[in-house]
Amino acid sequence: MATTSHFSATSHCSSVSRFVDFGSRSSGKWRSNLLLIRTLRSRPLARSFSVKNVSSEPKTKLENPISGEDASSIASSIKYHAEFTPLFSPEKFELPKAFVATAQSVRDALIINWNATYECYDRLNLKQAYYLSMEFLQGRALLNAIGNLELTGAYAEALTKLGHDLESVARHEPDAALGNGGLGRLASCFLDSMATLNYPAWGYGLRYKYGLFKQRITKDGQEEVAEDWLEMGNPWEIVRNDISYPVKFYGKVVSGSDGKKHWIGGEDIMAVAYDLPIPGYKTKSTINLRLWSTKAPAEDLDLSAFNAGEHTKAYEALANAEKICYILYPGDNSLEGKTLRLKQQYTLCSASLQDIIARFERRSGSNIKWEDFPEKVAVQMNDTHPTLCIPELMRILIDLKGLSWKEAWNITQRTTAYTNHTVLPEALEKWSLDLMQKLLPRHVEIIEMIDEELINTIVSEYGREDSDLLEKKLKEMRILENVDLPSTFANLIAKPKESSAAAVSENSGEAGKLINEKDEVDSGDETESKGEPKSTGARKKEEVVAEPPSKMVRMANLCVVGGHAVNGVAEIHSEIVKDEVFNSFYKLWPNKFQNKTNGVTPRRWIRFCNPDLSKIITEWTGSEEWVLNTEKLAELRKFADNEDFQTQWRAAKKSNKMKVASLLKEKTGYSVSPDAMFDIQVKRIHEYKRQLLNILGIVYRYKKMKEMSAVERKAKYVPRVCIFGGKAFATYVQAKRIVKFITDVGATVNHDPEIGDLLKVVFVPDYNVSVAELLIPASELSQHISTAGMEASGTSNMKFAMNGCILIGTLDGANVEIRQEVGEDNFFLFGAEAHEIAGLREERAMGKFVPDPRFEEVKDFVRTGVFGSCNYDELLGSLEGNEGFGRADYFLVGKDFPSYVECQEKVDEAYQDQRRWTKMSIMNTAGSYKFSSDRTIHEYAKDIWNIEPIILP
Question: Which of 98, 258, 709, 898 has a 20 to 30 A CA-CA distance from 570?
């Protein structure tokens, strides 16, 4: 088999004594190996492909291309890369070098399947889906890749021969800094499922050089430093120097003699493709994640200025191009920051669409039929960040390909689809029309035309008789906000009355601070957060009369209008999208709206990160079929009361907890007992996710412990290790205060000799996928306690449930469906429900809320200074008052506090009965079968993308 020969072809290496010896370079053995390599590499790789619809017939097991390789051959391959594709000096074979050589060895195997998958897509020319996302939170790739290739044992043995162990080598891989929260992790889970299920699909993103930031925890709280994930190189990526596209900013639009619009002048950069292989599990399918890096051509370096000593000026064009891909979510409190974010979004859209169109044209050959484009291409916009795909596709089709407006609009609407990730209208992404006009003048023209078409549709739907209704619908639905109607509709409605203070406040006050901050209050751990939330209270008069409302482009409205499908990411979220967020659009186009509940890959999130539990599941269900068919997990229910099964289950959990205890000691210096309950909340630090509710509950617990004797404490409370992790956006002051408060509470509690191991509070710095892969398998209680109606879905709640963790949470996002599947008795529920939230906020604004005495007690306790000298008046002040920005407890921490405390008492009671707790844990894993990303991708493929699986023989 060609693939087996390929791996044998890499069997010569250096004669470093600690490696397997293949003879000296003067020996005949070495020369014969080299001859074999040259012979095998000269052989063409045979290609043959077949198409099957695996949704309608079972997939036969495919032989892995290198599954027959033994540890010695793999060791030879690693040894070869250590010498002939080095990134390190030749004298030593230490762990960093061992990782890179091992990764390059794995990549050899992937490239064969990768190239075969490429060629398969080209030859068959079937419809392909393209998933565009600003984030792909990949995590480490080594263990996932060899696991999907079914070579974990062989690589472990090979590395042992070379003097290392696989786990230590894997730990030297940095997490790819391409994402932050659940939005990026969801995208990565989807790629894994696309490959595993053999769907023709790719991902497109940006290659951030420094990511978001690396988080350090000091005595002052969170500090941010640049990520260094690329400093040692990335052995997985391949730069495609032959694949680059021009991307333009600024300039002007002129009409040519041919009547076409031409976008000329301005600033030009190049987007260069970097590819990462994404292997499927037990299949040859290896799809592509294409990331764009930006640069300017060498001639843009001004040598005259440089030689004159004006170095900064000389390098300005190059720096402007390169910085586009420096940082994920650069701060946008300044005009420069906003401009950079918009440049990032357009770069992703423009480069990706140019690439997609070039591929369509190449596959079409000489017979290009643009009307067939939507039959060959599906573009999924993950959140509103890739919204500019819509006007960019229109621009290319009209200005460059010569299509009419009607033809281009029909193609665009049939090609693009939008996944919504927020439930709050004020958090939907908006951009300044003035900024967009300067940066992307041609796109603004196109957006204005789309807006005009929408206005015409609205008028046709609602008529001109009821001007108040028409005005209301136009205000809700138009893409352009605070922009006069086009001249053709100038007399459509009466001249608007002067804006009231409240209206100005709504458009240009605190809500305006949420512009471009789709990540401000989002839904499923997805994007990054920064500002503070919109206040429910009134604003001072002098703040609302200063200036007229800004003219904005509403990106979510553009997505809904420009695409053929809009989906939410959990059942409750999708209903809110239809009933509230986009209700007018839903009434106009009900068939556009769908639900696609999020999912996570069971390969990474059980099979590979929790081998102890995986072994038990395989043993008791009788096979590893559950890894591809998670419905098999439901069979665990029949063993939930089995004593032997429970004993094994608890042993697996204890083993994982011991690993986390070591991690916490290494990362924080705190020692914790693995016999205590591990209570974990790990996600972005944001007020709506309510880490503040969690830590105030811990403070209340600590206060009550201090008031008891040692005997009373031990009788009432089970030992707990309360673990936090997550990043607060660098400019999100209130979130950073929460981080500081958590670490201060931990510093006090963890050094209190009276409390000892009965309570520990630990903040894990720089939370990422690799840390999650340790924490989640060890978790026993996980907190998903967002204010009801604000978390669209969540994905970490699914990962925790899969690993036998019991959730405490509100009826929010996917919590609702998880609770249904695992059983109400196996979920700790508290708090107000989504339909109550608006009324409760109104109650606060009117001054009618009466706080629970326990809530007042815990705030007073914090203010005594027991947790250090830091002044927490601003933090606690956000929970008080009835009006004004940053007050009125917008996220209802005070309202839900008594319910939360009482629910935690039920948690203690349940944990004291370990048989009951273990059964609850088993039922969570058994009930999580529905939340595989494989299920989600099948639904996208069938209902939105209309693509079929391709199986490589």
Answer: 898
Could you say which of 341, 421, 530, 596 is catalytic?
Answer: 421
For strand 267-279 and strand 238-249, is the pairing parallel, antiparallel, or unpaired? antiparallel
Q: Which of 39, 157, 35, 32 is nearest to 102 (CA)?
A: 157
DSSP secondary-structure letter at 440?
-
pLDDT for residue 343 is more than 90: yes
The amino acid that residue 750 corresponds to is: N
Residue 751 known to be catalytic:
no
Helix residue ranges, H only, 43-94? 71-84
Bridge partners (DSSP) listed for residue 781: 679, 806
In the chain the first and final C-alpha atoms are separated, in Å, by 12
Q: For 597, phi and psi rounded to 5 degrees?
A: -60, 135
Tokens of 900: 């939360």
Would residue 97 show up in a list of annotated catalytic residues for this protein? no
SS3 351: helix
**Residue 320: burial class (beta carbons within 10 Å; 0-12, 13-18, 19+):** middle
Query: Side chain identity at 289, as an amino acid letter?
Result: L
Q: Is the pLDDT of residue 485 over 60?
A: yes
Q: Residue 209 catalytic? A: no
Residue 519, classed as helix, strand or coil, is coil
State the catalytic residue, choosing from 689, 713, 736, 740. 689
Q: Bigger pLDDT: 124 or 526? A: 124
- pLDDT of 545 reads 58
Rounded to an integer, the average pLDDT of 284-308 is 93
Strand 214-218 and strand 221-225: pairing? antiparallel
- Residue 419: strand pairing partners: 382, 567
Q: Is the distance from CB of 696 to CB of 738 less than 8 angstroms?
A: no
Query: What are the pLDDT digits (tens) for 188-214?
Result: 999 999 999 999 999 999 999 999 999
Banded pLDDT at 53 (limits 50, 70, 90): very low
What is the biggest distance separating any 2 CA atoms in the chain, rounded to whole angstroms?
A: 94
CA–CA separation, 743 vs 764, rounded Å? Answer: 10
Instruction: Single out the residue of 647, 668, 724 nearest to residue 693, CA to CA.
Output: 724
Cβ atoms of residues 382 and 598 within 8 Å: no
Pairing relationship of beta strands 806-809 and 781-784 according to DSSP bridges: parallel
Question: How many residues make up the chain in this entry?
Answer: 953
Which band of pLDDT confidence, cut at 50, 70 and 90, is reported for residue 64?
very low
The better pLDDT of the pair 69, 680 is held by 680
Contact between 427 and 522 (Cβ < 8 Å) = yes
The one catalytic residue in 294, 415, 795, 918 is 795
Structure confidence at residue 883 as a pLDDT band (50, 70, 90): confident
CA 868 to chain CA centroid, nearest Å: 36
Which DSSP state fits 176? P
List, in sequence order, the alpha helices (H) in 589-732: 602, 611-621, 643-668, 691-706, 710-716
Catalytic residue among 683, 701, 841, 844: 683
Question: Contact, 761 vs 745, CB < 8 A?
Answer: yes
Q: Which of 699, 664, 679, 675 has the alpha carbon at shortest distance from 757? A: 675
**In the prediction, which pLDDT does 497 show?**
52
Summarised one tens digit per residue, pLDDT across range 931-941 is 999 999 999 99
Mean pLDDT, the chain, rounded, equals 88
Q: Which of 473, 632, 737, 799 is catalytic?
A: 799
pLDDT-derived band at 539, boundaries 50, 70, 90? very low
Catalytic residue among 214, 282, 684, 727: 684
d(CA 784, CA 827): 11
784 part of the active site: no
Active site annotation includes 61: no
Any idea which residue has 């690396």 for tokens? 214
Nearest to 40 by CA among 2, 66, 75, 71: 2
pLDDT at 796 over 50: yes
Helix (H, G, I), strand (E, B) or coil at 153: helix
